[in-house]
Design a protein that fits this description.
- Four copies of one chain form a homotetramer.
- The first copy, chain A, is α/β, with parallel strands linked by helices.
- Chain A folds into two domains: about 15-70, Vcp-like ATPase, Chain A, domain 2; about 75-260, Vaccinia Virus protein VP39 (Rossmann fold), CATH 3.40.50.
- Chain A has six helices and 15 strands.
- The first copy, chain A, has helices at about 70-80, 90-100, 115-125, 135-150, 185-190, 205-220, and strands spanning about 15-20, 25-30, 35-40, 40-45, 55-60, 65-70, 105-110, 130-135, 155-160, 170-175, 195-205, 220-235, 240-245, 245-250, 255-260.
- In chain A, the strands form three sheets. Chain A has an eight-stranded mixed beta sheet with strand order 9-8-7-10-11-15-12-13, with helices on both faces. Chain A has a four-stranded antiparallel beta sheet with strand order 2-1-6-5, with no helix packed on it. Chain A has a two-stranded antiparallel ribbon with strand order 3-4.
- Chain A is globular.
- The model of chain A has no long low-confidence stretch (mean pLDDT about 90).
- Chains in contact: A-B, A-C, A-D, B-C, B-D, C-D.
- Chains A and B meet through strand 6, helix 1, helix 2, helix 3 and strand 11 of A and strand 6, helix 1, helix 2, helix 3 and strand 11 of B.
- Strand 12 (about 220-235) of chain C pairs antiparallel with strand 12 (about 220-235) of chain D, so a sheet runs across the interface.
Chain lengths: ~270, ~270, ~270, ~270
Amino acid sequence: MAWNNYDVIARDGDMVQLLGKRHKSHFIRLKTGAIFQTHRGELQHDAMIGKPWGSRLVSHTGNPFFLMRPGLSDIITEIKRNTQIMYPKDIGYIVMVMGIGPGVHVLEAGTGSGALTTAFAFLVGDTGKVTSYEQREQMHNLARNNLRRVDLLDRVDLKLGDVLDGFEERDVDAVFLDLPNPYDYIPQVKASLKLGGFLGMILPTTNQITRTLPVLMENNFAFIEVCEIMLRYYKPDWERLRPTDRMVAHTGYLVFGRSVMETPVMD
Amino acid sequence: MAWNNYDVIARDGDMVQLLGKRHKSHFIRLKTGAIFQTHRGELQHDAMIGKPWGSRLVSHTGNPFFLMRPGLSDIITEIKRNTQIMYPKDIGYIVMVMGIGPGVHVLEAGTGSGALTTAFAFLVGDTGKVTSYEQREQMHNLARNNLRRVDLLDRVDLKLGDVLDGFEERDVDAVFLDLPNPYDYIPQVKASLKLGGFLGMILPTTNQITRTLPVLMENNFAFIEVCEIMLRYYKPDWERLRPTDRMVAHTGYLVFGRSVMETPVMD
Amino acid sequence: MAWNNYDVIARDGDMVQLLGKRHKSHFIRLKTGAIFQTHRGELQHDAMIGKPWGSRLVSHTGNPFFLMRPGLSDIITEIKRNTQIMYPKDIGYIVMVMGIGPGVHVLEAGTGSGALTTAFAFLVGDTGKVTSYEQREQMHNLARNNLRRVDLLDRVDLKLGDVLDGFEERDVDAVFLDLPNPYDYIPQVKASLKLGGFLGMILPTTNQITRTLPVLMENNFAFIEVCEIMLRYYKPDWERLRPTDRMVAHTGYLVFGRSVMETPVMD
Amino acid sequence: MAWNNYDVIARDGDMVQLLGKRHKSHFIRLKTGAIFQTHRGELQHDAMIGKPWGSRLVSHTGNPFFLMRPGLSDIITEIKRNTQIMYPKDIGYIVMVMGIGPGVHVLEAGTGSGALTTAFAFLVGDTGKVTSYEQREQMHNLARNNLRRVDLLDRVDLKLGDVLDGFEERDVDAVFLDLPNPYDYIPQVKASLKLGGFLGMILPTTNQITRTLPVLMENNFAFIEVCEIMLRYYKPDWERLRPTDRMVAHTGYLVFGRSVMETPVMD
C-alpha cells in the first residue's frame, strides 16, 4: 500500500508533511510516543495522531505547523539526494507522453536518488512494475531507502550494475534513460522495449541531443519529439499579481521516440 | 480494462493509432472485417490484426502508416471536442501536484469534452474513481462518448447539472475546477474535499486569478501556488538543432491550494 | 536627414504609416497630388498633407485609417525582404549590449534585406557610420532600396562581395555577423575591430554556436555571452487580460564577445 | 561628448571598465597619478593610460584585469541605485518600439536612479534631448550624479517634482512612464505628447495593466501593445551547451500606445 492511502484523520503509521513558516516542509512518519524535533521546537506525535488533516498545531516554542498529507510533487521535491533530481514539471509531461499509469511495466536507467522512480512506482499501482538500473552502489542504496520510506519499494525492482551489455527485461511498455551517454544504450533499449513502445530521455545539453538523434534513427525509433518544459510561478498576491523575480531556467531537454519496425522514410 | 492493456501484437478490439505522413494520426478500434478509410487510401483491419506494434503498413494507394499503441498524450490531444481542451503539459503538472494516481477519488467540474477526465480516469486505475460535473448536456454527452471510446467510462461518474448548491460527494481526495467562475464554487469545494486535500484550477485570465485568490483565503485554503507551464518544441534535426518557429504562448494559469482548518497567519 | 524628423502636422515628403483595421499598416511617402490606393479604398495625399499626426481619415469606400509617424520597430518589421529578417526584440538587445548610438562606426556582414542595417543607421546618427557587406547582388540592391526609402542611405556604405579575405575597414567600434558560417570570419573580424570592441552574432542553431565558440576563444575574444530573447504579447483586454494564444518561439541565439589582447586564463 | 568617444588606446579622462575574475566589473575614470584600489590589489592609472583597449593588466597582488571600454548595457547594469533599475532587455525593446534615436526629444517620469535616462541620453545624441521628472529629491540627486559620471548630463533636463498638474513640455516625440500609478498621468501625457507619438510604460503587476488600459482608451491612445521580454542566458561551453540554471523570471510588463485624435472604433 503506497503512502497516499489516507483516512480523514491522521493515523499511526501515516506519512505526514508538516508545513511550517515560509512553506518549509518536514516529512515524518507518525509513530505513537515519538517526538518531532526541529529548530522551531518540538511536537509530540501523539498530539497529531487522531487529528484531522489540515489541522494547525503549535510547537512547544509557539511555532505553527500544518498537518498535511504529502502530495506526489512534495514527496519528489523533498527526496534525499546526492545528485540533481528530476523536477515535477518534467516528470508530469513524461508521464503524459509515455502513458505511465496503472498496470504499466516501465524500465529506467539510471535510478539516481529515485525521484522519477518514485513517481513511476506511485503511478503504475499494484498491478504495474518499475525496473530501475543504477551502476553506482551508493545511489542504488539511497534510492532503496527513499522508496522504502514512502512504501513504494515493493513495486520496484532496483538493479545494481551497468547495462552496456543489455537489460534483462523484454517487452517492457516504456523505457526512460537518465544517463550522461544515452546514445550508447539505444540498441539495448530496442531489444527490451515492446515494438510501438515509448522511449524517453532527459538530456541537460544540446550536444547530447545532437549526438543521440542519429542513433535513434539508426535503431528505428520514429516520431521523435524534442522539447523543454518551463515553469513560472506567480506571487499569489491578488492586489499585486506578478511572476516571481527569478525562476529555474533549465533542467533538461526531453527527447521521446517510439520503437518501430523500420525507419519511416516519409514526410 | 482501459485502452492501454496491450500484447506484443495488435489484437481484435485494440485501440490503434495509425501514424501517417507529417505525424498525422488516426485513432481506430480494430474489428475483424472492418476497413479503415482515409483520403490517403484504405487499410483492411484484418491486415493489422496479428501484426507487431510498430509495423509499417501501406494503404491501397501506396501511403505508409505505422501501427502504434496510442499514448496518453496522443489520446488526449485527439479527443473530439466542442471546446478548448486541456493540454498534456498542464495535465501532467496537475497530476504531479495533486497526486492523482491509483486509488484516488477525484472530483471535477466542469467535464467539458472530457480530456482531463480521461487522464484522471486512466491514472486512478480500477481502484480509484472520477466524479465529473457538467451543466451543458451536449458536452456531458460528448464526454461520455469520448470516455467510452477509450474504455474508461466505468471509472467515471458523469453528472449533469450545475453545482452552485454543492457537490453530492464528501471526503474526496482532490477537486479540479475548469470553470469560468471558480470563485463562486469555493465553499462547495470546501465541503466536499478532505481536509488537507488539493484543490486545482485552470484560469485563462489574470482577472480570474485576482478574483479567486481572496475567496480561497476566506475559505481556509492555504499554501497557494499560482503558475504557468510553457512547452517549447525543437526540430529534431541533429545538424540544425533549434526550437520550432512558433509555439503555444498560453493555455491557462494553474492555481493550487490545500484545504486547512484555519487560515495560516504566518510567514 | 532620417525619416523621423517630424513636425506636428504631416508635410509633403514625410514618411507616413497608415494604420487601418486589424492593425494593418501601409507605409507611403506624402507627395502633393498623389493617391494612396488599397483594397479598402483610395485616399488623396493632399487630404493628409497639413493634417495633425494621429488624425483619423476615411477612404472613399468608408474605411478608417490613422495618419501615423512610423516607429523604428514598425519600419523594420515592414521592410521589404527576400529573406528572414531580424526582429526588434533581438535588435534592441544587440543595440544595448554593443552600445550602438550616435557617432559609432559599426561593421555588418551580411546585409540581407537591410533590417538591422536600418536600425544601426538610424541610431548612429549623422556623426556615425555603418559599413555593410553582402555577397548576393540581389540582396545588396534590395537593401539599398530599403535604406533609400527611409532616407538613411547616406549613413551606410553598402559593399558587394564576400569577406573571406577580410574587411577593408580598420578600428571599427563594433562588428555584427548575420551569416550562416560566422566561424569562418573571426580572424577577419579581429583585424578590423578596435581592441576592446564588441562582436555580435545571431545564429539560428545550437550547432552553429558550438562550432563558433572555440574559434572565438582562439582569436582572443573574451567575456562571451550567449543568450536568447523571447517576446510574449498580451491581449490588451482589461477584463480578460491574458497572453496571446501563440508566439514566436525562436528567431536566433545571440552571441557576443569582446576583443582582448590575450585569452583570459582566469575564473 | 558622451563617455563612448574612444581612441584605440586608453587616454587620460576615459571611462574604463576593468573586468576581473568572474566577470566582476569596476568602472573608473582614468586620471594621471591616481590609483585604482580593490580587494584584489592596486593598479596605477598611469599604467593604463596609453595602453591599447583589451589589454591584460595585473594588480600588485597578481590578479588579472582587462582594460575595457564600457558598453551601454554594462553602464546601465552597474548604475548606482537605491531602487529597482530597468534591464537592458527591456530598454532595448522600448528604444525600438518608441524610435528613440538621434534628435528625438523624450520625456520621462520618474527618473529613478537614471538607468533608462542614461540609455535615452546616450541614444538621442547632441541634437536630441531628454526631460525627466522625479519627485523624490534623493533619487533626483542620485540620477544627476549617475549621469554626470558618464558625461551625459548636458543632454538631460532633470526636474524635481510631481507632475499630477502636468508636464511643462509640449509636442515631445515620446513619453515613458516608470511610475506605480501611471493611470493617474495619462491626460497629462496626452497634453505634452505630439499627436501620433509613442507612450510607453513598465508595470510590474497585472493589476496595474488592467487599471491603466481603460484610461488609455478614454484618452485616445490607440494601437495598444502589451508584452513582456524574457532573456535566457546560456553557459558558453561548446562541449556542454545549455541554458544557465536560473534566470530572471520577471522585471515588468511593457505597455505601449500611440496618441491619436479620436478613439478608433474599428477592427
